[in-house]
Amino acid sequence: MRYPQGGGLTAERQRRREELRLQAAERFALGEGSSAIARDLRVSVRSVQRWRQAWADGGPRSLRSQGPASLPRLSGKQFAQLESELAKGPAAHGWEDQRWTLSRVKTVIGRRFHLTYTIQGVRKLLVRNGWSCQVPARRATERDDDAVRVGQGGVAPRGRPAAARGAWLVFEDEAGFSMTPSHAETWSQRGRTPVVRVRGRSRRRISIAALTCYKPGHRSRLIYRPRRDDGRRDGRKSFSWRDYRDLLIAAHQQLGGPIVLIWDNPNVHKAAGRREFAASRDWLTILYLPAYAPDLNPVEGIWSLLRRGWLSNVAFSTPEHLIRTLRSGLRHIQYRSNLIDGCLTETGLTIKSA
Q1: Helix (H, G, I), strand (E, B) or coil at 214
Q2: Coil, strand, or helix at residue 251?
C-alpha cells in the first residue's frame, strides 16, 4: 500500500488496521474464504492471505499491532533545526555552489547532531518531512528582493492619481523568436532518442511587443505588435520608442480609457522622445518594475505559453511559417481571458479597484 507523505501509518491508522486484522481472524475461525473477507473489509486478497498465514502460525495474538518498526532518529524539533541549517544555503557550510545533495545533507546532520545516516536514510528523512528534489528557479544576484516584495503586495500608481483612477493596468514586454524552436517532451521507443529537425540558423527573425491589460470588472485583454527583422546589417533588430508609442496609442483606442503602463527598465523605455510623448498624454501613467524581476511581469507568462505550446518542436520552413504560428498562438490566448488572468496570478501581484 502507498503511505501518506508523512511516511508510514499514523497511530490512528495503525489502530484501524489492527481492528481489520482481528475481524479477519474471527472469520478465519469460521472457515470463510479469503476473497469474501477481502471484499467485505475492502482490502487486498494478498493482505488477507498474509494475515491468514500469520494467524495459522501464531493465532490472533500474532495479528496485533507491534507498534512502529523504528523510531525516527531525528525528532521533530531536531528536524526543524536541520531545516534552519539548510535554509542558510550550502555556502554557509563550506560548499561553493548552491546545490543541496543527499551526501551534503548527510554531512550537515553528522556535524550538527553527531548522527550517522545512510544516503537512502537521508532521502527517506527528507521525503517524510515534505522535501523533494527539484529544479531551482534562477534569480539575478543584482535583484532587490525588498523591492520585489513591495511590488507583490500591490501596485500603486504614483503621480496623476486622477488619470490613474479607473484606468487599465497594462504590462508590457517584448521577446524575439527565431526559426529554431524550443524543445518539448515527446514519446518514443525506449532506447531510441527522438530527433527534431530544425533550421541551422538561429538568428533572431521576429520580435513581438505585447501588452496584457487588466481592469477590475472587465475582461482581460492581450494586445501585441510583431516586428520582422529585415535582414540588413545596419537595420534595427528590435523595437524603437516610436514603435512603442504607436502600440500605446492603438491600445488606448482599443481599451477606451486611461492607461497605467508598467514595464521594465531598458534604455529604449527611457528615451527622451518617449518621455516627451508620455508628458503630453494625460491618459498615460508610466511605472517601472524592479530591476532583474521578470517574474513580476505577466507578459513573461504569455511567452512561456507560446514556447511550451505552439512553438515547441515545430520545424519552421520559412519566416512566414513562424509568423503564422505566432499569430495563431497569440490569437488563441486573446480569446481566452482566463489564460491572461493566470499569467497575472503567477506573478503574485494584486490589482485593487480604486
Answers
A1: strand
A2: helix
Q: Are 63 and 29 in contact (CB under 8 A)?
A: no
65 Cβ contact partners less than 8 Å away, ≥ 6 residues apart:
14, 15, 17, 18
C-alpha distances (whole Å) from 189 to each of 23, 183, 196 are 48, 18, 15
Tell me which of 93-97, 164-168, 241-245 is least confident: 164-168
> Distance from CA of residue 276 to its chain's centroid?
39
Please give the Cα distance from 130 to 172 (Å, whole number).
Answer: 37
- What is residue 231's predicted lDDT score, i.e. its pLDDT? 60
Give the cell for residue 231. Answer: 535582414
DSSP state of 97: S
CB 62 within 8 A of CB 53: no
Does the pLDDT of residue 129 top 60, yes or no?
yes
Confidence of residue 200 (pLDDT cuts 50, 70, 90): low
Q: Is the dihedral of CA 182, 187, 190, 192 positive or negative?
A: negative
User: What's the pTM value of the predicted model, to 2 decimals?
Assistant: 0.61
What integer pLDDT is reported at residue 279 of this predicted model? 85
Measured distance CA(307)–CA(134) in Å, rounded: 21
Closest CA to 206 of 234, 233, 225: 225
Q: How are strands ordered across the β-sheet holding 221-228?
A: 221-228, 204-214, 168-178, 259-263, 284-288
Element housing 250 (H / E): helix 241-255
Which H or E element spans position 304?
helix 299-308
User: In angstroms, rounded to a whole number, what is the distance separating the alpha carbons of residues 172 and 164?
Assistant: 17
List residues bridging with 209 in a β-sheet: 174, 225
Digit-coded pLDDT (tens) for 131-159: 888 877 666 666 666 655 555 555 544 44
